[in-house]
Each structure stands twice: as structure tokens, then as C-alpha cells.
Amino acid sequence: MATSKSNLSWSANSSIAAKHSIPSSFLSLSPSLLPVRRRRRVNLNLRRDTAGSLRVKAMATAATATEVGEMRTREELKKGIAELYDESSGIWEDIWGDHMHHGFYDPSQEASLSHHKAAQIRLIEEALRFAGVSDDPSRLLKRMVDVGCGIGGSSRYMAKKYGATCQGITLSPIQAQRAQALAVAEGLADKAFFQVADALEQPFPDGQFDLVWSMESGEHMPDKRKFVNELARVAAPGGTIVIVTWCHRDLSPSEESLKPKEKELLRKICDAYYLPAWCSTADYVKLLESLSLQDIKAADWSEHVAPFWPAVIRSALTWKGITSLIRAGWKTIKGALAMPLMVEGYKMGLIKFAIITCRKSE
Ligand SMILES: C[S@@+](CC[C@H](N)C(=O)[O-])C[C@H]1O[C@@H](n2cnc3c(N)ncnc32)[C@H](O)[C@@H]1O
């Protein structure tokens, strides 16, 4: 098993492991997943110069979206996403609770599991603040759609915080059922509603929602233009759209596409997590601009989410994590084995944790 590839990647893996208290054996479990790591010295301090809020000038075209990750048909992708979340949502909830998304941390913060759960709530709060969603009781949001709702953590949070009526959609029947059961159990049966539906063909009339919320679902969407069109279509006049998603880095003006080794890393991540082609934050901004949406803002929060994946890896390596993974099934195990690739992608500056928000004109 000890191929020259895995030997070469060992020192980098050890460095990642030491820095984040991840057993290095985990990072060498699947050398075939990790060849891009060879010959690199790894330092997980994410670049600080990209953090913070910025109004992004759309400079890259959406062309990169067609170059990476198109290895499945749309139907295969939808089926794979549904099966992945059907299989893995129970184990995730068991260990991590309601929210299937990153946490938002102060840079260099040490965090325990309870801190990670608090950081997940903080991500929601930071996103609401960034988007300018008001806490003013006279302007509280009334109707929200949770696009790619998981087991409904964001919806239940908003239903409690604002008294809003929330509609959640997911591709996973198990998630929709679980989200509804939790809403009933938490006394939100008349506030939060969940169904299986495709974000690219939402089962809602135009102009319905004060808040259109997509928390880490955009990366699964094979047609970003259609995705953004649908978000804008269902938003009420004056409504806010929030997209928190994984992007690849913006291309520089002299680049036409990502580098081959970057494409190769994304290809492996796409394979494991049922993702289609990625796009950049600038691509999203450009799409929103093309729809004449207002107050478009974007920020790179990669630095703020850096502790998240190492923590997920550590939680997978507990006895409970390992036995649950084995019980969950192959798609979940494959996803777990690909987690170091996300760490690597962030560290390379290739993967960006982006927030993009805007408002539909009145
Ligand atoms: C990483 S989970 C995020 C869940 C949730 N937003 C949260 O933060 O807890 C991604 C979610 O996107 C959903 N999803 C992916 N593609 C979708 C699509 N085309 N239509 C609807 N939901 C989709 C998945 O079913 C899953 O619920």
C-alpha cells in the first residue's frame, strides 16, 4: 500500500495533522484521493489578505463553470445528492445537531464541539447581519424560503427568532421528513414546512418571500444561472437574497481558467460530494448584476471558517464517528475520506467560503 505517492504526501499530511490535532493516519487513508498534496509544505494559516467584506467587481466569466466537475448527468447528480443526504443526515445530526454547515469563528480561536455548534449559529447571525436583515420588531421578516434546507436548522431558527413562516426544500426525502418531525416536536408545526423539491424549479409562485436563504446548497447546483434566477423569482419585491456557498477563487485578469492541479483537486471533491462545476464569487456577482438586483455585496469568509473541517475530521475519528460512518454507508465514508481535500483546497487559496447577498427592487 505504501506507494511512492503516499510517502511523498506524508510530510505534508503530518504537518496538517499536527497543526489541527488530526491523527495523521487519517490523512493517509486514501492516498489516491490526495496526490495533489505531494511536494507541498503545508501551512494551514489561510491567507489573511482575502478576508473581510468587499464589493467584488465581476471580472471572471462563468466559463470556468463548464470546465470542472461535469462528470455526471443532472439526473445522476440529483439522485446522488438525495442518496448522499438520505444516508448521511442521521449521523451528522447525531454528532453535530441541526445545522449542516460551517461555523463562523474568530481567527485562531480554539474550539470544542459545543463551541463549533455555537459557531454554526454565529454563521447564521453573521449572514443575517451582513445582508442587513433587520431585528427591528416593526420590520421583522414574515416569509422565508430555505433553499436546500437540510434537516431544517435555519428554518426553525428563523421561525423562532422572527416568528417567520418558513418553507424548506431539499432533494432528500429523509431530510424533509426529519425536518418536519423536528418542527412539530419544537412546536413549530404552523411555522415551518418542508418538502422534497428542486431549487432549480421551485414549487412556489413568484414574489413570495421576504428572505430567500441558501445556506451551503449553491455548490450542488448544476446551473448557477437558473439557480440565481429562481432565487430572484421567488423573492418578494424588496426581499433579501442570501447565498452562502463554496466557490473557487476568482480568476486574475490574465487567467482564462484554473490551473490543472486546482481542477484536479476540485474534480475529486466533486466526485465525493456530488457537486457539479464550481464557479467563483465574481461569477455569482455577475449573475446577480445581470438580473438587476440591488445592493449586491460579497465577502470571503474563508478565514473565519478555517477551524471547521479539521473539527469535522476529528469528530469522524472518534469511536462513535467511525462506527456511525460504517453503518451509514459507502457514500458517507467516501465523503469522510475526502474531507482533507477541503482543508487542502482552503489552504491553497483555491476554495473560498463566500457570502453573496442582494435585494430585489421594490
Ligand atoms: C450541506 S446541506 C446544507 C443544509 C442546510 N442549508 C443547512 O445549512 O443545514 C446541502 C443541502 O442542499 C440540498 N440540495 C442540493 N441540491 C439541491 C437542489 N437542486 N434542490 C434542492 N435542494 C438541494 C441538499 O438536499 C441538502 O439539503
From TrEMBL:
Keywords: Methyltransferase, S-adenosyl-L-methionine, Transferase. Residues 144-153 are annotated as: SAM motif I. Residues 207-215 are annotated as: SAM motif II. InterPro entries: Methyltransf_11, PiNMT-like, SAM-dependent_MTases_sf. The keyword Transferase applies. One of its GO terms (molecular function) is S-adenosylmethionine-dependent methyltransferase activity. The keyword S-adenosyl-L-methionine applies. GO terms for biological process: methylation. Residues 234-243 are annotated as: SAM motif III. Residues 145-243 form the Methyltransferase type domain. CDD domains: AdoMet_MTases. Belongs to the class I-like SAM-binding methyltransferase superfamily. gTMT family. This is Methyltransferase type 11 domain-containing protein. It comes from Carnegiea gigantea.
